[in-house]
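Whether sequence alone determines local backbone shape is best considered at the level of individual chains. We regard such an encoding as a compact summary of how the chain folds. The sequence in question and its structure tokens are set out directly beneath this paragraph.
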Amino acid sequence: MAKKEDGINALNQEFRRFEGVNKGQEYRLVEHGESDQFDDDFVIQTCDMQAFFNGGEEGRAAFAQELGSALEEIGFAVLSGHEVDTDLYRMAEQNVAEIFEKTTLEQRMAFEAQRHGSVNQGYFPMKETTIIHPDLVEGWVFCRRAFDLDGNDDFRAEEFWPEAKYEQAFRQVVQAHEKLILPIMQSILQYLKCDPNLYNEKLTATNFGFRLNYYPAINKEDDKSGAGRMLGHEDVDLFTILPAQSVDGLQVFNRANGKWIRLNPEPGTIILNTGDYMQRITNDRLPSTTHRVSKPKIASYDKPRITIPMAVYVWEEEMLEVLPGLEPVKYEPISAIKFHTGITSKYYGDEYAVDK
């Protein structure tokens, strides 16, 4: 494996052997002024979830068509009318800032990330998110077991959190997002002319990765290094729920023309994107779309960027199979843990993969 600093100039195809779905696109992992092109005309579709919640059968069908067509075209959509109290997002941002700004590195390192199941869970120090690129971000990943969601008598928040109050605060966000999982999946399945309820059981009390991302203000040294805030990548999950953030930097790769789209939706909306699990089970119909976080406008260099994406998975023992009716079938059934760890071993090393 090359030095991490080499990832500043790397191309995604250098890591092609890790992929579990077809990804023919080629791009630099970090924004590169000389070679990158930007698409300022493409508009990622905003889909109003009120049609699903309050529009009856006709509204659900219309929402499914709108959402499905957006995801099939670009792998991204923006959700409005989702009924999540946006005060939760303001509260969450304040708590993320407090965790990363008021705890010491030593305190955070006590929770250093380790694999549990398919997912590396815990704290990732600055520039240590992956082994292939020095991302300008600190991260902290919490999966279902880090929340008191299922009434387990032996749950202890202090095993996962620097203070129990953070579990209680972020649990509210997770519970609000859990209410969106089935509406989103049912709409996708309806769009693909599958039984909308096919994944109801698999996605009830399912696993997820809830991540706190803290991108500190950009100093001169990091600016000069050429590193990006987060390398270009595709999510490995079914889909990711990401509340919109006020500090810009999110860029989406359009496979159709090889250009990047700067995505800065309205505050209070949710960015939704499909991942590798979804591309696999939809037989490439819904792509796992490349995105990255680049430096913001210079005027925002002194501001931290805070995001709280929630990646939705199925449990490790589930099989990922192409959905009924999507033919010819391109992918054989595979266990979620083998699929997931095989892909993410590009970030953590070959030994991360589980071959079963």
